[in-house]
Specification:
With 496 residues, the chain is of the alpha/beta class. It is built from 16 helices and 15 strands. Bound molecules: adenosine monophosphate and zinc ion. Adenosine monophosphate binds next to helix 1 and strand 9.
């Protein structure tokens, strides 16, 4: 395969770098998955959609990608030292694994609605306790961890003394790190230093999620699962690691420390961080209650929006900001996305119907259109610049619509250029951006054929002067969201 010149912004060094995978033609990608003690919110969905597009584009470039996205089902600790999963279980009077399963199912449903491809492997933290225990042991063996009353802590002071760059990813300087106590543990005094973090935690009597280990009956620290599972499925070193930028510290910084501490090598070569989804200018966050759920958005049942929005409109809305920029959800922005999405889908429909009368050899317009096609590839290779590539699709759509409306002579575009646009736009709009039309189809040929059949049947009815039937057809279509437009060249249809 040709080596694509893909540049990726590497959070580890704070600059764009040429992407070269460890093994030519293959990519190992790890993305931190959801914590399943609560419904995922739209902010989480934005991050997973962003990585879905990254995954899809890598596939589009011809890479064989192993995409690992975990499920965090042994919870994080809360400020009061209580496990989130346990808290969820107690609130709902369920078994912890029932809570995890319920919200895992909900997460999968949402990913399906947003047309997010499933990862190659979706490992659960609770299914990898042995691997996590082995990793803790390896860290102890290399003297980067110590045991206190059955719990095990990572020794950040020793790690820094050995000149390991703790803080490089999050840009924290050593003094900040050492002053900062970010662990929400009850037994803070067990730690040698406040910046040390737990690898294994001895379970208190009321703690239900517990496993045997050489140190105590307990449970793993949150950061450990990703280190253990990425190593298991992608190797000690792999290509790409991603997550939201709120995970940089402490989660990702500690992941790196654990990997280095256990095997001496840094795990991912490129770190990618997505930016936050805001709601009315503030970070969307479960803990702050500033959220809008996908269901509320799809039903219109929220104080923040004036009406319901289709999941594909929301996905389209996500595409309009670069993954490293924040994106603010407002009702006006969603309405604009709704219009933009429909315009794009209309162009896709016109493209497939290849109008007669295109020229055989291309002129200036062909050169311009082909320039946009090339530029959209450059945009995607420039750190996945989806909004710019999408803007290119809109420029193409403008010519397609103008030709359809008669504002542009049919022979100003050649048939070969039209075919190139069709194939490229189908690959980008459906394949890479992951959009589908309103009926959820990325291949609307069947819908087109059915609509032609219905339009013919209605025409026959009108010729027979059976206006009751012809009106019934038109009204029933309108109820399902399809409008018929009668013109001098026949009847056309469009989504309302
Ligand atoms: P969590 O379940 O809290 O671990 O979050 C799952 C993923 O969603 C992580 O990669 C988070 O960084 C990301 N995330 C959390 N809040 C937001 C937000 N408001 N916007 C975008 N991504 C978010
Ligand atoms: Zn993680």
């Amino acid at each position: 395969m040709d080596t694509p010149q893909l540049y990726i912004y590497n959070s580890l060094r704070g600059e764009k770098e040429l992407f070269t995978p460890l093994v030519p033609g293959r990519v190992g990608l790890y993305v931190c998955g959801p914590t399943v003690y609560y419904e995922v919110h739209l902010g989480n969905c934005r991050t997973f959609v962003s990585f879905d597009i990254i995954y899809r584009y890598l596939l589009h470039l011809g890479y064989k990608v192993r995409y690992v996205r975990n499920i965090t089902d042994v919870g994080h600790l809360l400020d009061d030292g209580e496990d989130r999963m346990l808290k969820g279980a107690r609130l709902e009077q369920l078994q912890p694994m029932e809570v995890a399963q319920k919200y895992t199912n909900g997460f999968h449903d949402k990913m399906r609605v947003f047309n997010v491809l499933p990862p190659s492997i979706e490992p659960r933290a609770t299914g990898h306790i042995i691997e996590q225990i082995e990793m803790v042991q390896a860290i102890i063996d290399r003297s980067y961890a110590y045991i206190r009353n059955g719990s095990v802590y990572f020794d950040t002071v020793k790690y820094l003394q050995d000149k390991h760059p703790y803080g490089q990813l999050s840009g924290r300087v050593v003094e900040d790190l050492l002053a900062e106590s970010r662990d929400d543990l009850k037994n803070q005094d067990e730690k040698k230093h406040p910046s040390d973090f737990a690898l294994w935690i001895k379970a208190s009597d009321e703690h239900i999620m517990r496993w045997n280990s050489p140190w105590s009956v307990g449970f793993p620290g949150w950061h450990l699962e990703c280190s253990a599972m990425s190593t298991k499925y992608l190797g000690e070193q792999f290509d790409l690691h991603g997550g939201g930028n709120d995970l940089k510290f402490p989660h990702h910084e500690n992941e790196i420390a654990q990997n280095v501490g256990s095997c001496g090598c840094t795990p991912a070569r490129y770190w990618m961080h997505t930016n936050m989804l805001l709601l009315n200018g503030r970070k969307m966050s479960k803990s702050e209650g500033n959220t809008i759920s996908p269901e509320e958005l799809f039903s219109g049942n929220s104080e923040h929006i004036s009406r319901a929005y289709d999941p594909m409109v929301v996905r389209f809305f996500f595409l309009q900001a670069h993954y490293r920029s924040t994106l603010d959800i407002t009702d006006e922005a969603l309405q604009a996305a709704d219009r933009g999405y429909r315009r794009l889908m209309e162009a896709m429909r016109i493209l497939r119907s290849t109008p007669p009368g295109l020229s055989s050899d291309g002129g200036e317009r062909d050169a311009m259109l082909r320039g946009i096609l090339r530029q959209s590839v450059n945009d995607m290779n420039d750190d996945f610049n989806v909004p710019k590539a999408l803007a290119g699709m809109f420029e193409l759509a403008a010519s397609i619509n103008a030709l359809k409306d008669g504002h542009l002579p049919k022979n100003s575009i050649s048939a070969s250029c039209w075919n190139e646009m069709t194939s490229h736009m189908e690959q980008f709009v459906y394949g890479v951006f992951g959009l589908a039309d309103e009926s959820g189809n990325t291949n609307t040929e069947v819908v087109d054929r059915l609509m032609q059949l219905i339009i013919e049947m209605r025409r026959d009815a009108r010729e027979r002067k059976d206006f009751a039937i012809s009106d019934k057809i038109r009204d029933a279509l309108k109820d399902t969201g399809i409008q018929l437009k009668d013109g001098k060249d026949g009847t056309e249809w469009m989504y309302l």
